């Protein structure tokens, strides 16, 4: 089964997406997500100039060899751009293989270990009334696990808190990347944050009870000892996880956090390689692997990471914001069903215009996501509709402390 063509489709239905579309000589088409939020054109160029010319004529069924060819053959290894490009190729070839076999991808990966993937949604509020409304909205939407992000007194805008009531007006989610000429600059104050967050979870627990799984994203902003302090302060509220408590590239820093708190830790949405996890997993410093198929080198690579994680009792918690395309989301859901050490799946509903371009078959019911039993990933790309939404440069915000020091966003 030879690859006859591969094209890179950049489109902006609600936000920018980069999709690789691979077609075999017998007309089977596979899709891969290569979206890297705020740096989309870098991945498009990498694919278009350095990968697509190598794909045409290759055996589409040789997934592992193609992965190794693109990873080792580039000489320059790892990094978000390279691994997003490899992810798109890998995912497209898995899509093709499953379509050719006439089965959903999860069946090729070993079949289902569960009836569906527990999802969590993003509730947020600038203050408690707004936050409570947003949590109620998510419960009505059917979520059984909810991420809680809150405004901080004294700060105008904070990561993860939609700018309008109930978490984003008519839709509960928000798009952090904005089409401005320069990145929006937000302000941050860790001490104000550390003072405020425990009181928010105290209020949420007393309003919604002790059992609702609650998650919180620290978004890389704390030092290890600050993260240890927050983890300890949140223990009475029994979080499902505290995410990105500290920048994860300093893997050893998690030892300090682990020494001080039993709050479960999740990390890895900005990682792109299994090598980013060796200390974290080998020393059981985290409880959930946050990587997405799209940013970690594809289905092949993420399955390898999750099998490595399983050795140490660590579970999946795949990244699933709206900047993971429906193609990347579908790929995640197939893995979510097939791996034994599944933990939870992040799920932000895509904008209606996104779903005009990407025709999905995955479902969300009773708090669970399912990829469907359609052949392959179960997603079709409407190329004509994609052409109606031209690329629009957009940047993620940057963050500064009160004195102007650039801080992690
Ligand atoms: C999450 C992430 C996102 C990122 C976004 C960046 O937990 O979903 O932290 O909110 O900020 O995906 O592109
Ligand atoms: Mg996050």
From TrEMBL:
Residues 129-264 form the Mandelate racemase/muconate lactonizing enzyme C-terminal domain. Pfam families: MR_MLE_C, MR_MLE_N. Coiled coil: none annotated. One of its GO terms (biological process) is carbohydrate catabolic process. GO terms for molecular function: magnesium ion binding; mannonate dehydratase activity. It comes from the Bacteria. InterPro entries: D-mannonate_dehydratase-like, DgoD-like, Enolase-like_C_sf, Enolase-like_N, Enolase_C-like, Mandel_Rmase/mucon_lact_enz_CS, Mandelate_racemase_C, Mandelate_racemase_N_dom. PANTHER family: D-GALACTONATE DEHYDRATASE-RELATED (PTHR48080), STARVATION-SENSING PROTEIN RSPA (PTHR48080:SF6). This is D-mannonate dehydratase.
